[in-house]
Amino acid sequence: FSWSTDGGPVNFDMHGEKKNDGDNYTSYWRDRAQTSAHGSFTAPYDGTHGWYWKNPGTVPVTITVKVSGTFEKLYRL
């Protein structure tokens, strides 16, 4: 995977949520003030896995995500 912004830095949390486990989640990687990140990831359990980004600035940013491999779907909430 890789993601990047078109401008200012963002805070992010890469996390996973087990199926049928309420509001519980596991954070795999958190950081602040980043404009990109990349790596590889193998899900340790069934469920949803993804990122949460927060723009601490005042100027809007666009985040571009690229993934490869086997996954059921990629969607934006």
Can you describe what's shown?
- Helices cover 0% and strands 48% of the residues.
- It has 77 residues and is an all-beta fold.
- The strands form two sheets. The protein has a three-stranded antiparallel sheet, with no helix packed on it.
- The model has no long low-confidence stretch (mean pLDDT 94).
Which percent band covers the strand fraction? Answer: over 45%
Mean pLDDT: 94
**Judging from the principal axes of the Cα atoms, what is the shape?**
globular
Question: How large, in whole angstroms, is the Cα Rg?
Answer: 13 Å
Low-confidence stretches: none
What labels describe this entry?
0% helix, three-stranded antiparallel beta sheet, 77 residues, mainly beta, single chain
